[in-house]
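pasting input
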Amino acid sequence: MARIKTEKNISRKDVIVTKAAALFREKGFKAASMRDLAEAVGVEAASLYNHIKSKTELLHELCFSVANRFLHKIDEIEAEPISSIAKVEKLLRFHINEMIMHYEEVYVSDREWKHLADPYLSNFQNQRRIYRKRFAAIIEKGIQNKEIKKIDAPTAVLIMLHAISGIESWHRSTQKISAAELEENMITILVGGLVNH
Amino acid sequence: MARIKTEKNISRKDVIVTKAAALFREKGFKAASMRDLAEAVGVEAASLYNHIKSKTELLHELCFSVANRFLHKIDEIEAEPISSIAKVEKLLRFHINEMIMHYEEVYVSDREWKHLADPYLSNFQNQRRIYRKRFAAIIEKGIQNKEIKKIDAPTAVLIMLHAISGIESWHRSTQKISAAELEENMITILVGGLVNH
DNA sequence: TAATATCGCTAACGGATGTTAGCAAAGATA
DNA sequence: TATCTTTGCTAACATCCGTTAGCGATATTA
């Protein structure tokens, strides 16, 4: 009988969620089957249900844990006594690092949230909308300060967030530049596109 | 008996492909069923097979028609006697307009190509890789000319392409700025992030 | 109008899917 | 060791999926 291996402070459920992130990233939520997931975990499909309620629950966990991390970060950054452009840069660096280090979860949260079911779906969409508005507000402030070019702030947010999701391609590419170089390049281009010269 | 309505020069297959693009965009390729598609077309699922060979064929058509449009455009732009930064701008404007006007096809091609089956899959990935390299080469040339900042060209390409895919959010947003404004904002930020001041 | 090709329908297929029931093995606790 | 809880297994379910066969209806052509 093959047991799910756990280490200290990592529940069997956590193991499943982590493997699910990798699988959902690779195949997409719909195309990834519970039998696929079971195989990745090293167990039969039915056994998964001793630890989780449903396939969608896995998606909930992934989407909301990622969303919460970003919400906490923007809370923190908004409160700091620094320039708007510095706030934007800090937020971007956080996004970049999250995408570099927790790539699978972040990617899944970004691409597969459509498959959430209500009420989680509306909830997630709301959080997302609010987050983007707060991000846009920081940029708007920077425009008023003349730190940032006169641009449409929501469009800028949209560009920043989607640009960062391109790190997915970096992960899959064979000849990667280092993570640090990637971060600096992205900041150079994105912040460089915003600042008022 | 409900027939698929066609207009002049539009085959029934074209009608199906177009509806498929909308459906695949909305639900994702895997989650969109042939019965969904049939309903959107106004016909029974089995009837679709009088016009198409398979569900995947729909994806082929969408992915490759989009890819071909971009390849033709980059052919054209490479040959023009203009500065590197002007080439980048032209290419970006093309991407932006494609995403604005043929949003559903472009989006599907971008997000759902993973579900292609070999040999189409490898083929598509190759075309994509080559396209990005050609795009990167234009940027690289601009860096040598000192028109463009010293950045990692592949990373810049990645940012540009993904940033543009953010237009999807613009499409779904309720209070949109105009398409023309969107284009100018994106060019301002993205080209502004590249040019060497 | 008669002959032919096109198109849409119903019915059904084989297979994959998420999930449940019920039992057995293993670990934890006493 | 005896008891209880946790975990995994096999088997099976209902449902959905893409797709095919075969027939009748409709449009096209002569």
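fyi Chain A has two domains: 12-50, 64-194.
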